[in-house]
Design a protein that fits this description.
Layout: E1 2-9, H1 16-27, E2 31-38, H2 47-54, E3 56-58, H3 63-77, H4 79-95, H5 100-120, E4 124-128, H6 132-142, E5 147-152, H7 156-159, H8 166-172, E6 175-178, H9 181-188, E7 199-201, E8 222-227, H10 236-248, E9 253-258, H11 264-273, E10 280-284, H12 288-296, E11 300-303, H13 312-319, E12 324-327, E13 342-345, H14 350-362, H15 365-382, H16 385-406
Parallel strand pairs: 1-2, 1-4, 2-3, 4-5, 5-6, 6-7, 8-9, 8-11, 9-10, 11-12, 12-13
Length: about 400
């Protein structure tokens, strides 16, 4: 099985789940070629990310002249086929927020991808995220490349399905994957009824060996950790307000904010305004070992997000036997069970968020530890990398066989 993974910018610090998926597929015998459009402009602090970058081919490294040659060669070798692909790019570009010109660039990139797939004898193309990477995969098929599939994560795809031409991408795909049952339901909203059987759930995963012996919960005052990009949808500003309220009630609670992003200055200003510099620490981005270290030193994870798919940090915290406080949105309730593995609160409700933290602080340590162990058992059962990769590989094999049977020349 020879599969190309089409990615926009890869690797990124927040895309460790893609790396795990790729390596689990390769461990199962698949040959995976990484084709990203562009290199990350972030500092890659994790050695595993740097290794992935070295294994990735970058389409834009061809330069303008090289991409133009690929496009002209494709157009001359099959003008009718290229014209139909151009019409698809035009159709997607007219409804897109990014515009027609951007989709014509995707068509140019698709020509390079299709040629590279032919050179390497690749059987199938898979994209992550239903945004521009999937547009390139769709157009690569249209200009003569292999069939494609894609994984959606949310919330971006669900926020603007019409602008992303999500229905078109779903209906033309060999299959599509969601990472939760909630995500699959959102895809079904935009896919044709006869596409529904090709919509599957494959969970993002953890590698159990990295969480083989989680340390016990620490002693001392309650210590929580939040991990993620500093953007509005992650809701970290609510944490500052909740921490101020908890301080005013004399509860001794400490919070680590792991990550970075455009809201960092706003968060720092809010922390200073509330006088919480001794209770909230911002660490910046950490590698996987650093994230596990922060989870090991915490009693639990807190995630006050307004919009999500199914966050990797929830899975990692649960694998570390840490209870989770999260919002009742998207795929999170499929994993976090109230009063069993953590707390679920309404998104945007700072009162409920504060109350959940107070309840965690008041919970006896043995009961909190038991909740963490229940969380660990649940995530290990549902999010094993080897098992989920096998499910995805089976979907690849079926798609490749179906395409071969419908087009014996391939």
């Amino acid at each position: 099985m020879n599969v190309a993974y089409i990615l926009n910018t890869y690797p990124q610090p927040s895309h460790s789940f893609i790396r795990r998926e790729l390596r689990a597929l390769e461990a199962g015998g698949a040959r995976i070629v990484r084709l990203a459009m562009r290199r990350s402009d972030s500092d890659l602090v994790d050695p595993a990310d740097r290794e992935e970058a070295a294994r990735t081919e970058y389409v834009l490294d061809l330069g303008a002249a090289g991409l133009l040659r690929e496009t002209l060669a494709n157009a001359l070798s099959g003008p009718g086929r290229f014209g139909r692909a151009f019409a698809l790019a035009w159709r997607m570009g007219r409804v897109s927020e990014t515009g027609l010109a951007r989709h014509l660039i995707y068509l140019v990139e698709a020509c390079a991808v299709a040629r590279r797939c032919a050179e390497l004898g690749l059987d199938h193309v898979h994209a992550h995220f239903g945004t521009n990477a999937t547009a390139v995969a769709l157009l690569a098929q249209a200009v003569g490349g292999p069939g494609y599939s894609f994984t959606t994560h949310g919330p971006e795809e669900f926020d603007a399905p019409r602008a992303l031409a999500l229905g078109l991408k779903l209906d033309r795909a060999a299959f599509a994957v969601a990472i939760s049952q909630f995500g699959r339901s959102q895809l079904a909203r935009w896919a044709a009824f006869d596409t529904w059987p090709r919509l599957h759930v494959v969970h993002c995963t953890i590698e159990p060996e990295h969480f083989a012996d989680p340390p016990p919960l620490p002693d001392g005052p309650l210590r929580l950790v939040n991990i993620g990009r500093f953007v509005e949808q992650k809701g970290q500003m609510l944490l500052v307000e909740a921490m101020a309220r908890l301080r005013d009630t004399q509860l001794d609670v400490h919070l680590m904010l792991v990550g970075d992003g455009e809201m960092r200055a706003d968060l720092e200003a809010a922390i200073a305004r509330h006088g919480l510099g001794d209770r909230i620490i911002l660490t910046g981005w950490l590698d996987e070992a650093g994230v596990r270290r922060e989870l090991a030193g915490a009693h639990g994870l807190i995630l006050p997000s307004f919009a999500e798919g199914l966050p990797m940090v929830v899975m990692e915290a649960m694998a570390m036997a840490r209870p989770v406080i999260a919002t009742f949105i998207a795929g999170i309730p499929e994993l976090v069970r109230p009063e069993e593995t953590g707390w679920l609160v309404p998104a945007g409700d700072v009162d409920a968020l504060t109350q959940a933290v107070a309840e965690m602080a008041a919970m006896p340590s043995d009961r909190l530890s038991g909740m963490g162990q229940a969380a660990r058992a649940r995530v290990l059962e549902r999010h094993d990398a080897t098992r989920e990769a096998a499910k995805l590989a089976d979907h690849f094999a079926r798609a490749i066989a179906a395409r071969a049977s419908s087009d014996p020349a391939r």
